[in-house]
Write a structure and sequence with these properties.
This protein is 31% helix and 11% strand. It is an alpha/beta fold and 260 residues long. It has 2 domains: 162 residues, 3-Layer(aba) Sandwich (Lysozyme-like), CATH 3.40.80; 65 residues, Muramoyl-pentapeptide Carboxypeptidase, domain 1 (Orthogonal Bundle), CATH 1.10.101. The protein has a 7-stranded mixed beta sheet, with helices on both faces. About 7% of the residues have low confidence. It catalyses: Hydrolyzes the link between N-acetylmuramoyl residues and L-amino acid residues in certain cell-wall glycopeptides.
Length: 260
């Protein structure tokens, strides 16, 4: 029996924006965290922290499923800003902790997806990998078997969910203002680094195009490397700019507008 436990992100958190959503897609992720103990509960604790920028609807491991957001609210999980991935899809993270059974977690996720498809009227064609929205290699352990993963959704073993009430939310810290750097930033050798780059990364995180989930400090490291350039490029794409991955005056202006 698979438990579905509701443990919602506090409404005061910045990663629970409260935007109303009618889900049209289901987006599948892998947590990319292979540490022992990095199960669904560990991710509950992570996603409820006041300074966490990302959010999604369900985390699934080999024993339990946690729900972090109501299905009529969007999360920040797809890496496409206010695009369809974030604003119109249910985000599901599948755990890959070393002390868990990944294949069982996959089966649990397939069962959950089947229930959501039925409840929300979402067709199988709209069950998509994270890569669909941002180009990121995610879900990294399922992309090379995506067709068989989707085929397994139709035959996933039924289970009886047990739903618990959410815990009381804790008050979050006020949102931190971001001062954007002036000038042009791009990938160079050696890499451009400094407070300006870090401020840019924090700004991109605020509008949900950054950081790198699972990386140290969420990838906010003050270095303008390929991951930062990719986040800039995705931001540019969503805001009608030339997607060259170079932070310049037009990108700064668009980002300042997005931050308001």
């Amino acid at each position: 029996m698979v438990k579905i436990i509701k443990d919602y992100i506090p409404k005061s958190n910045k990663n629970r924006p409260g935007n109303k959503m009618k889900p049209l897609y289901i987006t599948v992720h892998n947590t990319a965290n292979t540490d022992k103990g990095a199960n669904a509960l560990r991710h509950v604790n992570y996603v409820k922290k006041p300074n966490t920028a990302t959010s999604w609807h369900f985390t699934v491991d080999d024993k339990v499923i946690y729900q972090h957001l109501p299905l009529n609210e969007n999360g920040w999980h797809a890496g496409d800003g206010r695009g369809t991935g974030n604003m119109k899809s249910i985000g599901i993270e599948i755990c890959e902790n070393a002390d868990g059974n990944f294949e069982k977690a996959v089966e649990n996720a397939q069962w959950l997806i089947r229930q959501l498809m039925t409840e929300q009227g979402i067709p199988l064609a709209n069950v998509v990998p994270h890569k669909r929205w941002s180009g990121k290699n995610c879900p990294r352990k399922l992309l090379n078997r995506w067709d068989s993963f989707k085929a397994g959704i139709a035959t996933a073993k039924p289970a009886t969910p047990v739903k618990n009430t959410p815990s009381k939310p804790k008050a979050s810290k006020p949102k931190k203002s971001v001062n954007l750097p002036s000038g042009i930033l791009k990938v160079t050798k050696p890499l451009t680094k400094g407070a300006g780059v870090k401020a840019l990364q924090e700004a991109l995180a605020t509008v949900y195009f950054y950081p790198e989930k699972g990386a140290k400090n969420n990838g906010i490291d003050g270095y303008y490397g390929p991951k930062t350039a990719n986040a800039v490029k995705r931001f540019q794409l969503m805001h009608g700019l030339v997607a060259d991955g170079i932070y310049g005056p037009k990108t700064k202006a668009a980002l300042q507008k997005a931050l308001k």
